[in-house]
Structures are given as structure tokens and as C-alpha cells.
Amino acid sequence: MNIYKKLVLLCLFMVIFTGVTIYVFVDYESRKTLEKQITARIEKQSDYAIGNIDRFIYERVIDIQQLSQDPILSYQSISQAELTDRIKELQLKNDLMYRSISFFDPMRLRLADSRDLNIGKTHDLTTYWEKIDQGQQEFTMDISPSVSLNIPVMHFAAVVRNDMGERVGTVVTRAELSWINSIFEESIATDSLMRNADIDLLDKEGTILYSNTNPDGVLKEKYHDMEQLAYFADNEEEKNHLFGNKIYFYTRESGYESYAGNNWILLIALPEDAVYQPVYDLRKQIGITLALVILLAGLIAFIAARFFVKPILSLTASAKEMGEGNLEAIPNIKTRDEIGKLAQSFGQMANKLKSKMREQDESNIELAAINERVELKYIQINEQKVEIELSKDQIEMQNSALGEAFKEIEKQNKSITSSIHYAERIQRSILPEHDIFNKYFPHSFMLYKPRDIVSGDFYWFDEIEKDGKRHLVIAVGDCTGHGVPGGFMSMLGNNLLTTIVTVGGQIEPAIVLEEVDADIRKVLHQNEHSSNSQDGMEIAFCTIDLETLKMKYAGAHRALYFFRNGEFTEIKADRASLGGVSRIRKRKLTNLQLTTHEIQLQKDDIFYLFSDGYKDQFGGELGRVFSSKRFKNVLYKIHQKPMEHQMKILDEEIMAWSKISNQKQTDDIIVMGIRV
Questions:
Q1: Nearest CA to 184 among 382, 52, 29?
Q2: Buried b (16+ CB within 10 A) or exposed e, 128-164
Q3: Which residues, 6+ apart, have CB-to-CB distance to 293 below 8 Å?
């Protein structure tokens, strides 16, 4: 049988190759088609679910608009009893939908509630109140914890106006979040695949509004993987993506009718195996069919192989004997096809192997000589090893000496630290007691956070009688440096103020600071002949007439923040430091001329004195400074809260800011807040 007839048998292999190719192609195309169908189906379910939520919110917005137009609620002369009866009547009409309904006056004071909860209490300035109070919207909604019900609810709020168009109040309804649960259950009830889904409804910041896997995290936690949200935000056209072993489907809220939506995000996660189970079933069917075809082709191949396998077996037996060392076992095959030519090649190979074996014997002799040289080298290496071990002993002795030196350094360090702690006790004993201060301003706080053990920031106050009138003088100082150098400067500033004000009787703020500047330059020898000495301080200084409540203020680089009736005012300080001789100050060594500002204090006025340590603290995700703007925003949000609560919030806020990027405290911090 010649080689051309044997090529017929190759058709069997072509059957296998063709079958495998068809399997791969059909598997790829079917998977691709089913993937499109399944993803389109789930995306449709997602759009349907988020659309139902939008429609639900739209209907509630229509409800709150209708409630705000109720003629009884808009009647300005309505009595408390009539208002309460009307609110409870509206609750009865909507009892299945709303957990409670409340009516507030324009100052957020709760006048009526369908469940008589928190009557007469003022509501906090939460998100939906900010939108209404600032005139941004006539009606709004959000999801947040209810102050009266102590559970997360959907708030719907609308402004109530009288016939003259004047705002007379705000009506607020509260619907439980279980309505969102029922909407999702109705949306996915007909789809068996969606029953295995992880469903999360998030706001635009990633906070959980609904989750069937983490219900306890609603309004308390953000989504567990913010990188997934960032990926979809950067790839807006991509509506699904595989993360790990789950496929995530991303849908953003688009609104319904006149309701524009809140940019909520619906994220549905399904196991990849569950999504593509139909693909796996089809692949299994194709595989079984292909296996049967290959089995039949193999049977045909076995029958055909009998016609040409004999010479191959003979050639294999000869190759085995040659492999065992019998180079005389040359196959006796006389055919003229390729197998015959292969047998001839085996004979030629045997002759060449004999020649190679002779060459190998010669190489072995050379290798033995090389081994002797290697053994000699090994002996030399062992000698070097002994020398290394001796060097190791010397190194260990040196390490022991270093350990003793380290103990001595540690002992000295403890001594230095103990001295610094003693200096800190001295510094705190110099700071004034709060009895005088709390006597006149019991509603106040002092946030005092040294960066190191001792601080370069200090505060000072005293009660002074001058011209028959009693005055309270207050100062907050920020000295150059921190730690021990800053502590020395703060003690100098404390002593100078005591000398000038308590002993000298000077209480005019600008004059006091000008004298502090002159005394610093005199004490530290900062004159025209000195080098660039930057040692000095920045001080905010106030004098309050305790009979008239007239306050005078002057500041050297330390401003004063002032709140009256919710309005913020910044009284800027002079752009000058006390002490220090820069190149500009050398050319112009004249006494400072600072400005005194006068403020007539009123009841419930609030003002703050502070160093620059709070606003200069590094932190946040990008490691930036906290900034004056962010500091002012925090004070604006908390200035109406109790003063001790304000101090706690300020402390927690700056600690959280530095913790985000693992930043240590940058500078000493002091913030003084006073409510008249």
C-alpha cells in the first residue's frame, strides 16, 4: 500500500478537526447571541424597576403638592386644634401610604403631627429643609432618618402659601422604605433569574438606599466597592461588566414625567454561572453530539489502521532495542514508501550513534580531570568559609557594643522626654483658670490641641477694672514654632500680656498689641543689626465692657469670626506679625500701627478666636490643607448648636480629615468659641 492510499485515512482526522472547529464556532456564536439576549433582558428588568420607583416618587410628589394647596392648611388664622384635626384627617385618608404627616411654621417649628410626635420642637436643618428654606424648590424629597420616628423614611415636603402668595408653613409626609422593597419584589417577581440577584439602590454619593443583601446598612454605609461605581461612571455607555465571578448591571435614574429624579443608581449583581447557564447547557449538547461523531470516526480509523500498522510496529520494536543499547537491531523493512525510507534512516542513525559513543568515552576522560580540579576548588572554598565564620564572631561583638550604646541613648531620651512633660505641666499651670471666664460667658468652649507635648499656641484672659468699669480681656496667640521652642514663645507672650494689661492697666487692643510687638523685639534683641530673626507671634485680642457689652477687637494676622441671627461676618486682622525681623522689617523698623474694631454685642451673638493650626491641617483624600473656607463652612453649620457640642464636632471633624490620608497633626490647634 503506497503513501497516497494511506492519505485516505487522514480524512478521519479531518472529521475530528472539522467537528472541533464547528463546536468552537457554534459555542462562540451561541454564547454571544445568548449573552446579548440575557443582558438585554436584565437591563430591561433594571429599567423597569427604576422606572417603577420614579413613578412611585412622582405620585408622592403629586400628593404633597395637593396637600400643600389644601385651603385649610393655607388659612393663616387657623387654630392649633383645627390644624391638628386637619393633619390627622389627611393621615386617615393616606394611612396605608404614609407613616405620618406633619405641619411646620416657616422657622421649622413643628405645629402639628398626625401622631402627635415632637410637637413644639424645631427640626434640624437637614437636606430637604435646606432646599426649601433657601428658596431652591417649592417641593422636594429625600431619604434620611426621621427625627420623630427614629427610622429611615422617604420625606416629601412642600411649601404652603396663603392667598397672598406668602409662605405660612411647610407640610411634610413620611413613607416607609418598605415601599421600595415591594416595588422591587413586584418588578422581579416574573423573572426567575432575578430572584438570585443582589440588588442595591444607591444615591449619587454611593450611600445605600435599599439592599436585599445588606438591609442594616441603609443610610448608614456606602456601597462596599466604590471602584465599581467609579468604573461605570467613567464608562457611561457600558451598562454591564464582569467583576470577579459576578456580572454587574448598572442603571441610572432618568426620572418620570415632571419628576427629574435624584441621580440614584440601581446596581444588580448576578452570578456568572446563573446568567450563562443556558449557554452551558447548549455547549453540553453540542459536546455530546460531537463525541458520538468522533467515536464513530475512531472506529472507522481503527479498522483502516490494520492495513498499515504492521510495519510501524516493527519499526517501533527496533527503536526500543536501540534505546536499550542494541545498535545492531536495524529494522528489516523493504517497502519503498516513506516508512521504508524511515527504516533506512534508522540504520544510518545507528552507525552515527556508534561513532558518537566513541567520542563520548574520550569526553569522559576529560571530565574526570575537570572533577579533580573542582575538588581542589572545593577545599579552597571551605577554607574561606572558616574565615567568614571568624568575621561573623567579630560582627556579633560589634553588634553587642551597639546594643549597649542604644540602651544609653534610650535612657537619655527618656530623661529628655520627662523634662518636656515637666515643661508641659509648667505651661498648663501658667494658662489662666476658666472660673472668671465662665462667670460671664458660661456658654463657651476652648479646643486646645498641642501638636507635641508643649504648645506654641496659648490663650489668656483676665478681669480688669479701669475708670470705675469692669472689663474682660481675652487673647488667643499663635507663636512661631511648636514643641519646646513654641512653648518658650507662648510663655513669653503670656508674661508680656500680664505685664502690659494686668500690671500696666492698658486695655486698648491695638495699643496692647503694639506694645507686645515692641517688647518682643526688645527682649529678643531684634533690631536693625540682627539677622533675619522670625521669632514672634500672631494674636487676636478683645476687650469687653461688662456693663455695656461693647467689645473692642484688634488682630495681628488673627481674624475674628462673628455670627448674629444666622449671618456670618469676618472681621479681618491687620497683616502684621508681632516680633520678628524680616528683610522688609529691617528697612522699616517703626512701631506697628494696628486697627481697633468696635462691636456692640447682643444676646445670642457668637464669636470665635483661633490660631491657624485648624485650617492648615493636612488630610482628605488628596492630602490637602483643611482651608479657611472649609473651616468657615463647618462653623456655619454648627454655630447654633450648644457650645460644648460644637467643640466635640470641631475635634471629630479635624481628626477625621487627617485620618483619611493618615496625616499626623501639622501644627498646634486652638479654637475659642463664645456665645453672649
A1: 52
A2: bbebbeeeeeebbbbbeebebeeebbbbbbbbbeeee
A3: 15, 19
pLDDT tens-digit series, residues 90-128: 989 888 889 899 999 988 899 999 999 999 898 887 777
H/E stretch holding 175: strand 167-176
The number of residues in the chain equals 676
Give yes or no for a contact between 115 and 185, defined as CB atoms under 8 angstroms apart: no
Summarised one tens digit per residue, pLDDT across range 377-426 is 888 888 777 777 787 877 788 777 777 767 776 777 676 666 667 667 77
Q: Say how far apart CA 650 and CA 641 lie, in whole Å.
A: 12
Ramachandran region, residue 219 (left: φ > 0; alpha: ψ -120 to 50; beta: rest)? left
For 92, 119, 168, 485, the CA distances from 115, given in Å and listed in that order, are: 11, 10, 21, 62
- Its sign, for the CA torsion 325, 327, 333, 338, is positive
The span from the CA of 178 to the CA of 580, in Å, is 66
Grid cell in block for residue 31 = 454564547
How far does CA 499 lie from the centroid of its chain? 50
314-to-64, 175, 317, 318, 331 alpha-carbon distances in Å: 96, 89, 5, 6, 7
Spell out the residues 6+ positions from residue 616 whose beta carbon is closer than 8 angstroms to its own. Answer: 625, 626, 666, 667
| pLDDT, position 193 | 72
Its pTM stands at 0.43
Residue 666, SS3? Answer: coil
| pLDDT tens-digit map of 54-82 | 888 888 889 988 998 888 888 878 888 88
Tell me which DSSP letter residue 73 carries: T
**Burial class for 305, CB neighbours closer than 10 Å (0-12, 13-18, 19+):** middle
Angle at 335 between CA 331 and CA 339, to 5 degrees: 65
Region for residue 135 given its phi and psi (left: phi exceeds 0; alpha: psi -120 to 50; beta: otherwise): left
Q: Taking a C-beta distance cutoff of 8 angstroms, is the pair 68, 158 a contact? A: yes
d(CA 578, CA 586): 14
CA 435 to mean position of chain CA atoms: 42
Rounded Cα distance between 588 and 584, Å, is 7
512 close to 436: Cβ distance less than 8 angstroms: no
One-letter amino acid of 457: D
H/E element, 384: helix 338-430
Please name which of 85, 150, 151 lies closest in space to residue 112, comparing C-alpha atoms: 85
The residue assigned the cell 455607555 is 237
Strand partners, 144: 153
Q: Tell me the three state secondary structure of residue 631.
A: helix
Mean pLDDT over 180-204 rounds to 77
Question: Rounded CA gap, 304 and 394, in Å?
Answer: 81
Q: Please give the pLDDT value at position 417.
A: 67
Q: Is 474 helix (H, G, I), strand (E, B) or coil?
A: strand
